[in-house]
Design brief:
The structure holds two protein chains of two kinds.
Chain A lengths: L7 H8 L11 H4 L16 E7 L5 E7 L1 H4 L4 E5 L1 H5 L5 E3 L5 E3 L5 E2 L5 E7 L2 H8 L3 E6 L26 E2 L2 E2 L5 E8 L1 H10 L2 E12 L8 E7 L4 E6 L4 H12 L6 E4 L15 H13 L3 E4 L2 H6 L3 E13 L5 E11 L29 E8 L6 E3 L7 H19 L3 H8 L8 E2 L5 E2 L4 H12 L1 H16 L5 E11 L11 E2 L2 E2 L2 E7 L5 E5 L8 H13 L6 E5 L16 H28 L6 E3 L3 E4 L2 E7 H8 L11 E7 L8 E11 L5 E11 L6 H20 L31 E4 L17 H19 L12 H10 L5
Parallel strand pairs in A: 1-16, 14-15, 17-20, 18-19, 27-28, 34-35
Antiparallel strand pairs in A: 1-7, 2-6, 2-8, 3-7, 4-5, 9-10, 11-19, 12-17, 13-14, 13-16, 17-18, 21-22, 23-33, 24-25, 26-27, 26-32, 29-30, 30-31, 33-34
Helix pairs in contact in A: 10-18, 12-13, 14-15, 15-16, 17-18
Chain B lengths: L6 E3 L4 H11 L3 E4 L5 H6 L7 E4 L9 E4 L2 E5 L4 H6 L1 H6 L1 H8 L4 H6 L2 H6 L7 H8 L2 E6 L2 E6 H4 E3 L2 E2 L6 E8 L6 E7 L9 E10 L2 E10 L6 E2 L1 H7 L6 H14 L10 H22 L2
Parallel strand pairs in B: 1-3, 2-3
Antiparallel strand pairs in B: 4-5, 5-10, 6-7, 6-10, 8-9, 11-12, 12-13, 13-14
The chains are: A alpha+beta, B alpha+beta.
Chain lengths: 806, 287
């Protein structure tokens, strides 16, 4: 071997495969302002649309007059529900089996609801036109408090549902009721509570908030009358689903619809569903024959397109005196706003909330969820979490802390006592899931050792004593959170969207010179797929990641996929990528055997090619195999080297993690200081540790925002009082704490590369850690539960209610 | 979030600006840094037909020392204030306060004239100007006049400015050498208006407070001077009982609105704490 021959380490390093902290290739364009977003798109003759919106939360629309608007120079059309009725699009189906007004049809049901769509030659003229549309409203009593939704005399919100006693998910109990969903064994659970030594019961609310990506929802629709084709560029997390939905509701053949998601500036669940803006822009383009752009502003985004959470969870845990849990009972009042526009898999009206047993071995559990309508914006999207998983994790993690407090036990110790043990996997939970793998106690202990948990508890005890002596006005809290997520939706046996199974897909095509392209059915919104997908392929087939181009988001070229949300990209598409790569590798092996004149079975894989067993110098690199695939394949074999895989996962994946937040609170002002935040994540096999770290930082920052102040709040009249970044808490680098990250690796046994997904774990695990820290800080003063968000004034209020200023 | 149509003017002198503003009346608004006006225009809460941009007027720029007074041109940005050695030396509380306004990007554009003239109770400079005993030079078609900051604010967005008048400069008497000062601002995040804020300038003699002024930001529809609170600390060594008394006197004149920063009760409570903390920190700085 001469000096020029690369070592095995050099060959490995050159691939930049799995496990490599490869720099994000997409950042080359993003950091230089060369990204290509929807609003960058300018087509010849393009028009602009914008909405007239309702100032009322609940009102009858008596009339809409667009005459004056049409006199504004540049205004071409004022579209109303009456216009849409002519093409049967005044209402649209939601992903949750409900219907939603595209434009106000007789009534408005939430503030800032879309009432009319003004189309003009530029954005300024469109806004000038909006101000000239005259709408006559007759205000109706608004229903804001979800706990009053099913009162006998509650206002009727959805007149379109009059007389319908059954909805998409079974019987409706009341005119404002959407569905009831129950899981688990009620009798067994009731019995467990009757026999329990100790029980706790608490109504734990997870307030309404919003994903608020920096880029709002937007689209450009262009209808070609000659070809009868509709092109839509949009901020879609799931472009193929949008194409199918458009085909179904607009009755345009699916092959004549081209949906393109260009670069997306963050989604976090906000960009999964279909919004009136898309429909109106499409109709406007069909009507005018010109491209029409619709771009939401910040206020519209926060107040109209898809909130998240708004779950009110009455949580009960039964336990022995020694702290072994024996039963869990949860009832959720789910506020969906004016229309049920949840973006969950179709059969799951409350998403995967039945992961609420968490990381603990509950012998029995029972869950019921009542979905209801209120005069608030529609939705219920999964804001950086798998469907309703963050609500479930918050519910159980607060519940366990409340139980620990009642038992007089340390919350970490209570968790260790109740963890599902490694030998119990695959574990069948009381609410129906099969957990794939986990080693919870190891992760928990690593966290406790890393932060010196015992030392922190000792410091806290000293600080509490000093507070009681009047020597300090600062209290200290430790927020422990141990979460188990359920991600990777999902297996066709239980997951579909509008009847389409939630598989995902990859097509890899290798070129003669040993480079290639991979097209995937997912769509990055910042997750870094162009970087990580190439890393999977690099490790699987020995082509350097730099030589693989990854393409997503164009429905004409990408294989059908269900998109990116719910941490499903790596569990589902990541598996499809590995499987497609393995098909290529199998063909490559046949080509190599032919060229090396040996039997296939005499070859073994070695980093970036094949070698003959026992003859290590007799090799053929993948690069050479690519060339051979185009000129000298074995007789009878088709030339070329490409493969497609559609992957239907056998199970979900179950990432987990142990987090702790150390916080001080000044009781006089309610001002908190996050002293430390440590996050240990186990997402199975780690593809790119740097991207994982970035994901954890981002998710923790969102969790921090949500727990400590970020909310969509309505006043009693249904006015949104947090409709801009002035009042909707969007932390800057100044407020954001320092994050310490750590990991363990417990691969998924059913996933081709053992990966589980990580993008949403920090939001799911982070929120309870922050909230538990606040609650832990106040617990010695006699409180059991303080509702989120924990902003300054509410912390002060909590202190005041506990008699601190007496 | 798109403003309505307007015409744009960029005069080169104060006289021209005043002439434009007087001629066009209520339909014209002067444009300084634009950080209050432009957002209002985007929301169409403000729909001026004419904008008179003051950036072309050299006479509105500059910071100079005139005997015991510092004179600051209205178009001096908060960034320029922060970069000024004269301000750092003779008016350190102005430097401290400017650093608590918005963020660097906003401070590059936002001006001191706009901050004091707009009449927004959330702005930090007005209460500070009252605390420092500043006066404003107002120029209109009938000439120039000086109005004390303490006489300028009449209500939320209502000031002593007459139609067509322009605030052109701010004169601030330099506090005594060795004075103590502090601006305490509680806010939810960078860029936010104060939940409550207090400015204190004091001098001490023989361990006792000799002179004291206290200003309050965003605790009423105008900035406030807490005169009873200031009186309460004169002649004391700022012992715990005095601080409590001063805070109570300040709280007594507060009338904040409930908003997303908190209910009235909270904002008054933390207003008192800001007063206490500002007094303590100011006393600690007396040199």
């Amino acid at each position: 071997m001469n000096d020029m021959t690369p070592t095995r380490e050099q060959r490995e390093a050159k691939l930049e495969g799995m496990g490599c902290k490869r720099k994000r290739v997409e950042d080359i364009r993003f950091t230089q302002g060369k990204g290509n977003y929807v609003d960058d798109l300018k087509l010849p003759g393009m028009l602009h649309g914008d909405f007239v919106r309702s100032p009322h939360a609940h009102a009858r629309v008596k009339s809409i007059n667009g005459d004056e608007a049409l006199k504004v120079p540049g205004v071409l059309a004022v579209i109303t529900a009456e216009t849409l009725k002519t093409v049967n699009l005044a209402w649209m189906p939601t992903l949750a089996g409900d219907v939603q007004m595209v434009l106000a049809d007789g009534k408005v049901l939430f503030q800032n609801q879309e009432v009319a769509f003004v189309v003009a030659t530029d954005r300024y003229a469109a806004d000038d036109g909006i101000n000239k549309v005259v709408v006559e409203y007759e205000p109706l009593p608004p229903l804001i408090d979800p706990f009053k939704a099913m009162d006998k005399d509650a206002p009727v919100l959805r007149e379109d549902l009059a007389g319908k006693t059954t909805g998409a998910h079974g019987p409706r109990k009341h005119h404002n009721h959407i569905f009831e969903w129950t899981v688990g064994d009620k009798d067994l659970t009731d019995a467990a509570f009757r026999k329990a030594d100790v029980t706790i019961k608490e109504m734990i609310s997870y307030h309404r908030t919003h994903p608020s990506p920096l880029e709002t929802c937007q689209c450009v629709c262009s209808f070609d009358k000659i070809k009868g084709e509709l092109s839509i560029w949009g901020t879609f997390q799931a472009p193929h689903v949008i194409r199918t939905v458009v085909a179904l509701i607009a009755k345009i053949p699916e092959h004549k619809i081209h949906v393109i998601s260009p670069d997306i500036g963050g989604g976090f669940g906000n960009k999964v569903g279909a919004y009136p803006g898309y429909i109106c822009a499409a109709v406007a383009s069909i009507v005018t024959g010109k491209p029409v752009k619709w771009v939401e502003d910040r206020i519209e985004n926060l107040t109209a397109t898809s909130f998240a959470r708004d779950y009110h969870m009455t949580t009960e845990i039964a336990s022995t005196r020694e702290g072994k849990v024996t039963g869990l009972r949860v009832h959720v009042l789910a506020d969906h706003g004016a229309f049920d526009a949840c973006a969950d898999p179709s059969k799951w009206p409350a998403g995967f909330f039945n992961i609420v047993t968490g990381s603990y071995d509950f012998p029995t559990a029972h869950l019921s969820v009542d979905g209801i309508y209120t005069n608030k914006a529609p939705g219920g999207v999964a804001y950086r979490c798998s469907f309703r998983v963050t609500e479930a994790a918050y519910c159980i993690e607060r519940g366990m802390d409340i139980l620990a407090q009642k038992l007089g036990m340390d919350p970490a110790e209570l968790r260790l006592k109740n963890f599902i043990k490694p030998e119990q996997f695959p574990y069948h939970s009381a609410l129906g899931w099969e957990y794939d793998s986990g080693d919870y106690a190891t992760a928990m202990r690593k966290m406790m050792e890393s932060v010196d948990y015992a030392g922190l508890r000792k410091e806290q005890a000293e600080k509490r004593a000093a507070f009681k002596r009047g020597e300090t006005r600062e209290i200290m809290g430790l927020g422990v959170s141990f979460f188990t997520e359920i991600v990777g939706a999902g297996p066709s046996k239980n997951c579909d969207i509008l009847g389409i199974a939630m598989f995902d897909s990859c097509e890899i095509r290798l070129h003669p010179t040993g480079a290639g392209i991979a097209r995937v059915g997912t769509k990055s919104q910042g997750q870094g797929h162009e970087t990580t997908w190439a890393q999977i392929i690099a490790t699987e087939i020995g082509i350097p990641a730099d030589d693989i181009m990854v393409e997503e988001g164009n429905t004409d070229t990408a294989p059908y996929g269900l998109g990116t949300y719910g941490s499903r990209s790596t569990p589902v598409a990541g598996a499809a990528i590995a499987m497609a790569a393995r098909k290529i590798k199998a063909k490559a092996q046949m080509i190599a055997a032919y060229k090396l004149e040996v039997h296939e079975d005499d070859l073994e894989w070695d980093i970036d090619g094949f070698r003959v067993k026992g003859l290590p110098e007799k090799t053929m690199s993948m690069k050479d195999i690519c060339w051979a695939a185009y000129n000298s394949v074995p007789p009878g074999m088709e030339p070329g080297l490409e493969a497609v895989s559609y992957y239907d996962p056998p199970n979900m994946t179950y990432p987990f993690g142990a987090y702790i937040c150390v916080m001080n609170i000044d009781v006089d002002t309610g001002v908190y200081k996050i002293r430390r935040f440590y996050a240990l994540d186990d997402c199975g096999t780690r593809i790119n540790p740097m991207i994982i770290e970035g994901q954890v930082h981002g998710g923790l920052t969102e969790a921090f925002a949500i727990a400590m102040g970020q909310e969509i709040r309505y006043d009693d009249d249904g006015n949104v009082v947090t409709g801009s970044f002035m009042d909707f808490f969007m932390p800057t680098a100044v407020e954001t704490p320092h994050w310490e990250t750590d990991f363990t690796v417990t691969p998924s046994p059913h996933h081709p590369i053992g990966a589980k997904g990580v993008g949403e774990s920090p939001n799911v695990g982070g929120v309870p850690a922050f909230s538990n820290a606040v609650n832990d800080a106040f617990s010695f003063l006699g409180s059991t539960h303080i509702q989120m968000p924990h902003d300054f004034w509410r912390n002060w209020k909590a202190a005041k209610n506990l008699g601190v200023f007496a | 979030m798109i403003p309505g149509p307007f015409s744009y003017h960029r005069p080169a002198t104060v006289a021209d600006a005043v002439k434009l503003l007087s001629t066009m009346g209520d339909e014209a608004r002067p444009l300084a840094g634009g950080h209050s006006l432009v957002p209002m225009m985007k929301l169409r809460l403000a729909t001026p037909e004419h904008l008179v941009d003051l950036h072309g007027i050299d006479g509105l720029k500059g910071i100079r020392r005139d005997g015991n007074t510092v004179v600051i041109g209205a178009m001096i940005t908060l960034h320029q204030l922060l970069a000024s050695d004269e301000i750092a030396k003779s008016l350190p509380i102005l430097h401290e306060t400017a650093l608590l306004i918005a963020d660097p990007q906003v401070r590059y554009r936002g001006t001191i004239g706009g901050n004091v003239a707009n009449g927004d109770p959330g702005n930090d400079m007005p209460a500070l100007m009252m605390t420092l005993g500043a006066s404003y030079r107002l120029e209109g078609k009938s000439g120039a006049r000086d109005v004390a900051a303490s006489e300028f604010y009449q209500g939320a967005y209502f000031t002593a400015l007459e139609p067509g008048e322009l605030l052109t400069a701010i004169s601030i008497p330099v506090p005594a050498a060795g004075h103590g000062y502090a601006y305490e601002k509680l806010k939810r995040k960078v860029g936010d208006y104060a939940t409550a804020a207090a400015a204190v300038v004091l001098t001490m003699a023989g361990g006792k407070v000799a002179t004291c002024k206290i200003g309050l930001t965003n605790l009423s529809e105008t900035p406030l001077l807490a005169e009873d609170a200031a009186k309460a600390v004169i002649g004391t060594s700022l012992d715990a009982a005095t601080l409590k008394k001063a805070a109570a006197a300040a709280v007594a004149i507060m009338a904040p609105a409930a908003d997303a920063r908190g209910p009235v009760e909270y904002r008054k409570h933390v207003g008192g704490i800001m007063v206490t903390r500002a007094l303590q920190r100011a006393a600690g700085r007396v040199g």
